[in-house]
Amino acid sequence: MKHFLQLRDFTRDEFEYLFDRTKHIKALFKSYTIYHPLRDRMLAMVFEKQSTRTRVSFEAGIHQLGGSSINLTTGETQLGRGEPIEDVARVISRMVDLVMIRTYDQSIIERFAEYSRVPVINGLTNQYHPCQILADVFTFIEHRGDISGRTVAWIGDGNNMCNTWLQAAAIFGFSLHVASPEGYALDNRLASSRELACLSVFDDPMAAVRGADLVTTDVWTSMGYEAEKEERQKDFADYQVDADMMAVARPEALFMHCLPAHRGEEVSEEVLEGPQSVVWDEAENRLHAQKALMEYLVLGRV
Ligand code: CP
Ligand code: NVA
């Protein structure tokens, strides 16, 4: 049994397989072809934080594969009254085939997985967002071909998305340029030496973006850090991806953002809505990539 708790839980070969399946499953969806490999299978989704894309893509995805889902939130389950995660894992996983969790610390999802009888998917933690990067790398390949040997520039918070991009850099063999304000750097302790070898850190965001094939950013204040919002608005003021910044990337560079976006903060309206932006494709590909992921976790290679 496999879990998908971090991007590095899968090998490059497994990702190549998943991308092939994603392409196939997407084509079936686009041609209105019914495909029900997970008939009668049940996905439990546990949301300890808010969501639009993750909720819709998993719920629509499992339904389109012939299965169904249950949505659990902290407030309306015993989790909110302090039931230990180990107990919740043992109970839920005796009743369903697959679990997706969005929560705070990575240790929560790891404890859940340790006690789970069924595969567990990380739908975002404070440290990682592997489902998003799965869709993002697939999206890059769809638009520009192989991502190996390319340069990805991350501007802003050294957060869950940034940590996961670094894992992707080591798996797929590309360089990650990161520029973050002081005090918001990526946490090196989460990275392996192989991952750190793919990383270049810049003080100046313009220098990080120069020559990049992909420019990407995220909100200044992630979920769980709302108390720091005002301070972050000041600290990140010089870290907006705007047209001047995109101009120093390669002419064919793409812009990505996992969404939700704050126009006028981490990205200008012009870039988000501009011709280099593939943010809506990224969001759509969450659906297709996660269908391939669920199929793989439940059925293995088909
Ligand atoms: N990108 C992403 O995970 O979006 P949601 O928070 O809406 O799920
Ligand atoms: N870094 C953001 C991503 C949201 C999808 C957060 O954790 O809130």
List the domain count as a whole number. 2
Q: Return the CATH class of the largest domain.
A: Alpha Beta
In CATH terms, the superfamily of the largest domain is Aspartate/ornithine carbamoyltransferase
- Rounded mean pLDDT is 98
Instruction: Name the strands of the widest sheet in spatial order.
Output: 7-6-5-8-9
Can you offer a commentary on this structure?
This protein folds into 2 domains: 7-129 and 283-299, Rossmann fold, CATH 3.40.50.1370; 132-279, Rossmann fold (3-Layer(aba) Sandwich), CATH 3.40.50.1370. The protein is 41% helix and 14% strand. The protein has helices at 12-30, 53-64, 85-92, 106-115, 130-144, 160-172, 193-196, 205-209, 229-235, 243-248, 269-272, 279-299; strands at 42-47, 68-73, 98-102, 120-122, 151-155, 175-179, 199-202, 214-217, 254-257. It has a 5-stranded parallel β-sheet. Helix 6 (160-172) links the parallel strand 5 and strand 6. Helix 2 packs across helix 12.
